[in-house]
Amino acid sequence: MVIDSTYIIIAFTISLVFSLIGTPLIVKFCNTYGLFDLPNTRKVHKYSIPRLGGSLFMPSLGFGVVVTLLIMYQGVNEDFEIGVSNIMMVIGATMIYIIGIFDDLKGIKATHKFIIQTIAALIFPLCNLMISNLHGLFGIHEIPLWIGYPLTVFVILLIVNAMNLIDGIDGLASGLAFLILGSFAYLYYELRAYLFCLISTSLAGATLAFFFFNFYGKVGKLKTFMGDSGSLFLGYVIAYLAIKYQMSNEPTGFPYREESLLISFTLVFLPCIDVIRVAILRKLHGRSMFEADKTHIHHRIMQMGLDMHQTLVVILTFFFSICLINYGLYGGGAQMTYIVGIDIVIYNLFMWIVVKMKAEIN
């Protein structure tokens, strides 16, 4: 499949416009049927906000990609090919989307959501979409199937829940997702993997539209929250793109690129390391890892006295900084193991400074 940048713009625009038109209808639906995210002690918002804004991510992505492909091929012909792995990804994404919708509408136990997420994650390795090479991390390259399979499932679950749990303030999950998806769109375009480029671009358009309503929308008018239907779906697609990108020398992979795993790691590092830190802290304090609290990165920064918009700027700046640091370290010849270690140190140092400043202010 050959594609020029025009089709990328088309996919982005279709998805963006679809969401811009659809979101006010979703907000009206939520207002009519009382589907609100209610404030409580563990949430930072103080008003009841419609919570199905992210429910448009999947239909926007599908509409943007399908219409763009039909425009490219002027209808389905012998060159129009969708691989088995892509079909399975749609099945898994649909499972995640449906369980998210159900949770937004009725509520569901965290353990039950986790079971469905695990089933959806198991689809990846079954389609040979998995981590089979650590590209020199800890001196390891090729890894056996019995390690790669559970590692892949773990990484998928980590990314899915990381995007879900970092969705705590206006614009954060959607802002991070937009930057990650934009990066993957460029990376896949460079690889000439155009279907994955269109997937990244189309979802980025939907995410940008949501960001507009979530960040700039007025309470009681068009402001909306993403909900689990949006954040879980975002996490699943990002996990798919990240795992697909790092693959090489496989029937479903790309030519070997030494830096591919590091790039995928860098793009999802911040939300994932935050989830890991919070889970460890909860265990150390004898609490369930699924128990909600106010210890995520955005909570800690806001506890310093910053508002949501200032906190968003700080976290997105931190994300950019990690990307630039890793780019510089890799360009300077640093091994991946050292880069990963440095990232972890930087993150923990950042959180230590945040907590210390919070203590001084209080």
Could you explain the architecture of this structure?
- The chain is mainly alpha-helical and 362 residues long.
- It contains 12 helices and 4 strands.
- It has helices at 5-33, 57-73, 84-105, 110-126, 145-165, 172-190, 194-216, 227-246, 260-284, 297-302, 308-331, 336-361, and strands spanning 36-37, 49-50, 133-137, 140-142.
- The strands form 2 sheets. The protein has a two-stranded antiparallel ribbon with strand order 1-2. Strands 3-4 form a two-stranded antiparallel ribbon.
- A hairpin with a 2-residue loop joins strand 3 and strand 4.
- Helix 1 (5-33) packs antiparallel against helix 2 (57-73).
- The radius of gyration is 20 Å and the shape is globular.
- It starts with a helix and ends with a helix.
- The model has no long low-confidence stretch (mean pLDDT 89).
> Helix segment count?
12
The main pleated sheet reads as:
2 strands, antiparallel
How many E strands?
A: 4
Mean pLDDT: 89
What share of residues is helical? 55-70%
- Give the overall shape: globular
**What is the strand content?**
under 5%
Radius of gyration: 20 Å
In whole angstroms, how far apart are the ends? 59 Å
Q: How do the strands line up in the largest sheet? A: 1-2
Summarize the helix and strand pattern as letters.
HEEHHHEEHHHHHHHH
Q: Look at the helices and sheets and give the structural class.
A: mainly alpha
> So what's the oligomer here?
single chain
